[in-house]
């Protein structure tokens, strides 16, 4: 099998149900999810040893789910199968966020993205997931999509934030607060 088809040389690409311009918002949306998937793989690659084994496993799981997101968005026209992204996937992300938040020290202000290599990579994933969410919201304004994809991406960015903080915490690196930030997070009492 050849890796090149030449079918996109004129600025069009195939989606399920037809062909569209390569800069179509649908392609932009699932293309940004694909970009995110690459950054998730990079973050997982930075995780070595047992300290991050379960987090690395979660990232690989997320990579599969990001393919599900892209698949759900790749349809034009009538859809002939159920969507892949479901509310259960979002519930699982919320459970993982809660687990990581139990490890993290409380914060009341915005923090600067950074710290360890793993934490920094996860913050990149967080910001790219926010961009992917914006692209999917734009697509939803003109096309029928699976609304769970938007919810999933929204929760995924929260997951990356919690995981980035956990990565720093596990390496005994303090998050750096944004100095001019007001108190924006409430601590539970």
UniProtKB/TrEMBL annotation:
The keyword ATP-binding applies. It catalyses: 2 cob(II)yrinate a,c diamide + reduced [electron-transfer flavoprotein] + 2 ATP = 2 adenosylcob(III)yrinate a,c-diamide + 2 triphosphate + oxidized [electron-transfer flavoprotein] + 3 H(+); 2 cob(II)alamin + reduced [electron-transfer flavoprotein] + 2 ATP = 2 adenosylcob(III)alamin + 2 triphosphate + oxidized [electron-transfer flavoprotein] + 3 H(+). Its EC number is 2.5.1.17. It comes from the Bacteria. This is Corrinoid adenosyltransferase. It is an enzyme of class 2 (transferase). Pathway: Cofactor biosynthesis; adenosylcobalamin biosynthesis; adenosylcobalamin from cob(II)yrinate a,c-diamide: step 2/7. InterPro entries: CblAdoTrfase-like, CblAdoTrfase-like_sf, PduO-typ. Keywords: ATP-binding, Cobalamin biosynthesis, Nucleotide-binding, Transferase. It holds the Pfam family Cob_adeno_trans. GO terms for molecular function: corrinoid adenosyltransferase activity. Residues 3-167 form the Cobalamin adenosyltransferase-like domain. Belongs to the Cob(I)alamin adenosyltransferase family.
């Amino acid at each position: 099998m050849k890796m090149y088809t030449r079918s996109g040389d004129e600025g069009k690409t195939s989606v399920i149900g037809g062909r569209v311009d390569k800069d179509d918002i649908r392609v932009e949306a699932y293309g940004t999810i694909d970009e995110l998937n690459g950054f998730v793989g990079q973050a997982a690659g930075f995780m070595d040893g047992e300290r991050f084994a379960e987090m690395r496993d979660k990232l690989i799981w997320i990579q599969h789910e990001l393919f599900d997101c892209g698949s759900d968005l790749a349809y034009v026209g009538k859809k002939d199968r159920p969507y892949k992204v479901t509310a259960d996937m979002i519930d699982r992300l919320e459970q993982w966020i809660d687990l990581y938040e139990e490890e993290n020290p409380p914060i009341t202000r915005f923090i600067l993205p950074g710290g360890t290599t793993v934490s920094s990579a996860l913050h990149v994933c967080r910001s790219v997931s926010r961009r992917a969410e914006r692209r999917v919201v734009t697509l939803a304004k003109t096309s029928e999509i699976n609304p769970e994809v938007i919810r999933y991406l929204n929760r995924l960015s929260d997951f990356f934030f919690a995981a980035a903080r956990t990565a720093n915490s596990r390496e005994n690196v303090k998050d750096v607060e944004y100095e001019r930030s007001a108190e924006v997070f409430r601590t539970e009492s």
